[in-house]
Amino acid sequence: MKLIILDQNGVINQRGDTLIKTPDEWKPITGSLQAIARLTHAGYRVVTATNQSGIGRGLLNMTSFNAINDKMFRAVQQEGGRLDALFFCPHTQHDKCVCRKPGIGMFKEIRQRYSVELSHVPVVGDSLRDLQAAAKAGAVPVLVLTGKGQATLANGDLPAGTQIYPDLSAVVDSLEIQAL
Questions:
Q1: Partners of 89 in beta bridges
Q2: How open is the CA angle 94-27-60, to the nearest 5 degrees?
Q3: Are 157 and 163 in contact (CB under 8 A)?
Q4: d(CA 100, CA 123)
Q5: pLDDT tens, the chain, 180 aa long
Q6: Distance CA 118, CA 139 (A)
Q7: Element (H or E) spanning 114, and its range?
């Protein structure tokens, strides 16, 4: 099975200065929805793994969170793609949970649900914690320079083996080249 794990904010959708709290505030990054559609057509299972501390901090309720994600799922479908599952951590960094990235709880759940080892699974993110979680889970850390990606790259200290691409579309280009 071909599987790819995507962070949401900064990879699929634009990352604002403030927390996205309504569907109207959710805006896709140019080319991201088409990239997911290309992954779908290439036979990939596409899942998201995202920290959502706004829920734990009381800034985002589950009704709004679900409405935002419904908009994302519909937008992906309108481009001919599919998101197979959404994994999220609602906790704050003070909760010390195992699911919040850079913890690997969400990745353990993904591994179990899909019965797949993560050693060849790309995990695409724009923050250091995304990459750290990927590396700890034994997956392939992939940094995109959208969202916080430029700042993450500038700060350095990336996990060994981190692949770097301008955006999700370029990641998909590289996967299709490797698959030939």
A1: 51
A2: 35
A3: no
A4: 15
A5: 999 999 999 999 998 778 899 999 999 999 999 999 999 999 999 999 999 999 999 999 999 999 999 999 999 999 999 999 999 999 998 998 999 999 999 999 999 999 999 999 999 999 999 999 999 999 999 999 999 999 999 999 999 999 999 999 999 999 964 543
A6: 5
A7: helix 105-114
